[in-house]
Structure to design on (235 residues):
């Protein structure tokens, strides 16, 4: 693996030059985490900052009834976890590899050494924290006060922003393929609903020309303009 290439993808280190990246390579060991592995939970005593060098990670919490509620799916370059007085808005959450992923762990001692050498990294982390907290607040507001239809429209819009294949849009007009395979059950867990409700709503959206799929196991495609229009109208 080219560790320098992986480090350059991380939000936290994106502004560093090659020499600085080489300096932090030894203190950011990589680990391959297999799909479905839960590698972080609220019960862990040690607080860790995680860097996603490749792959995708699902952050979720357990409801009082024991059901899983997906808060977010993060991809390559994202940072999450908490360390010292820093938190990325993902405390009290479980982290599961959505697909085979390469994850880096930084503990408090390592992180304090890094920011002492390069204070700009702490400012970058604050920017990341601010952005993530804003996203989480928006998500929770929609989940608490919106109809199931609006929650799913909002979720599809977020997934399109994060995982939309921009090249597919240039080839197919306003249709954007999602670069993530996600089941109806997984969508239900992300919007606090049940699979049957999601299936019925997606059938509605298909009839309205908002989403389409070539087959059961194919990637979902979203018509960005119709989606945004429907989300606005349902507001």
């Amino acid at each position: 693996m080219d560790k320098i290439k992986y480090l350059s993808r991380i939000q936290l280190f994106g502004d560093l030059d090659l020499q600085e990246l080489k300096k932090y390579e030894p203190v950011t060991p990589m680990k391959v985490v297999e799909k479905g592995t839960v590698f972080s939970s609220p019960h862990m005593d040690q607080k860790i900052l995680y860097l996603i060098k490749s792959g995708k990670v699902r952050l979720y919490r357990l409801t009082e009834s024991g059901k899983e509620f997906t808060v977010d799916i993060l991809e390559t370059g994202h940072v999450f976890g908490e360390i010292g007085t820093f938190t990325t808005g993902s405390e009290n959450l479980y982290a599961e590899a959505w697909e085979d992923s390469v994850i880096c762990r930084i503990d408090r001692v390592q992180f304090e050494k890094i920011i002492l050498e390069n204070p700009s990294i702490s400012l970058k982390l604050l920017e990341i924290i601010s952005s993530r907290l804003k996203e989480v607040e928006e998500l929770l507001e929609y989940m608490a006060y919106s109809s199931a239809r609006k929650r799913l429209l909002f979720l599809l819009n977020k997934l399109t922003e994060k995982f939309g294949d921009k090249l597919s849009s240039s080839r197919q007009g306003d249709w954007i393929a999602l670069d993530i395979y996600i089941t109806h059950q997984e969508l239900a867990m992300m919007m606090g609903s049940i699979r049957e409700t999601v299936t019925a709503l997606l059938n509605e959206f298909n009839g309205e020309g908002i989403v389409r799929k070539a087959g059961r196991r194919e990637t979902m495609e979203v018509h960005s303009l119709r989606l945004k229009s429907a989300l606005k109208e349902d507001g």
About this structure: The longest strand covers residues 68-75. The radius of gyration is 19 Å. DSSP finds nine helices and 13 strands in the chain. The CA atoms of residues 57 and 97 lie 5 Å apart.
